[in-house]
Amino acid sequence: MSESGVTGPAGGEELVSDVVLWDGDNGTLREPSRRVLVQLLRGPYLSASRHGNLWTALLSDEDAVRSSLADLFLDLVTDHAAQVAFVRNTYADVDAPKVMRTATLTFLDTALLLHLRQTLLQESGGRKTIVGADEVADQLQVYRGKDNADIAGFSKRINSSWQKMVKYGLLAATSTEGRFEVSPVLRLVFGAEEIAAVQAEYRRLAAEVEPGSAELPDTDEESE
Questions:
Q1: What are phi and psi of 50, to 5 degrees?
Q2: Which InterPro entries match (predicted)?
Q3: Whole-model pTM?
Q4: Mean pLDDT within 40-58
Q5: The dihedral sign for the CA sequence 15, 21, 23, 26
């Protein structure tokens, strides 16, 4: 790694820069902040529990990281209490390109997301939110519909939605088989108005299967 020096004001003394990392490097962020930027762009999110050093670096250089993301038409979303952050396409009223991919979710995908988010919000005291696939599947049976007798088929759809949440990093396996931690980033995926609108629509549709969509943090596989 090359280091660059500049002439100091006293006696021509050379000062080492912590920004220039190699010959010809024109970047403006320090190395830890660049690593923060990379993790945010790779997704699905950055958290203190999974990326302790990067979370510390983000806190110390948040304004600069936010500025760099804005150059890419991206917003930085942070929850300092939950210690999580992710990026999303800007909602500013400009004709901006969509940098982060938008995942299209089925009716059941979104129902699962809302259930996991509600479970997360009900927890208090900073405890981790742990759920099991079977108990969540039981809660989602209300969406099977009175006229849908295909129990096995509905179970497969629930499992498919569950695996999608694991892929997106919104559910993480724990040391106990069959138990998963709900990511605190789920607090930030939906806004209050969007939650209310989706819930109202779900109450109306009940057992129908309609597509819904939500912008999710990208995965490493999709980013490559």
A1: -100, -25
A2: JetB (IPR025449)
A3: 0.64
A4: 89
A5: negative
Residue numbers of the domain that contains 26: 5-89
Contact 97, 141 (CB under 8 A): no
123 and 85 within one domain: no
What is the C-alpha to C-alpha distance for residues 208 and 30, in angstroms, rounded to an integer? Answer: 51
Which stretches of the chain are DSSP H helices? 31-42, 52-60, 62-70, 107-122, 133-139, 151-167, 186-189, 192-205, 220-223
**CA 71, CA 69: separation in Å to the nearest integer?**
5
Positive or negative, the CA dihedral 184, 185, 189, 191 is positive
Strand order across the beta sheet in which 171-173 lies: 130-132, 179-182, 171-173
Most confident range, picked from 14-18, 29-33, 182-186, 190-194: 29-33
Which range of 77-86, 141-150, 186-195 scores highest in mean pLDDT? It is 77-86
3-state secondary structure of 186: helix
The percent of the chain in helix, strand and coil, each rounded to the nearest 5, is 45, 15, 40
Q: Which residues contact 152 (CB under 8 A, 6 or more apart)?
A: none
Distance CA(120)–CA(131), nearest Å, equals 10
Query: Are 66 and 42 contained in the same domain?
Result: yes
**CATH code: domain of residue 214:** 1.10.10.10
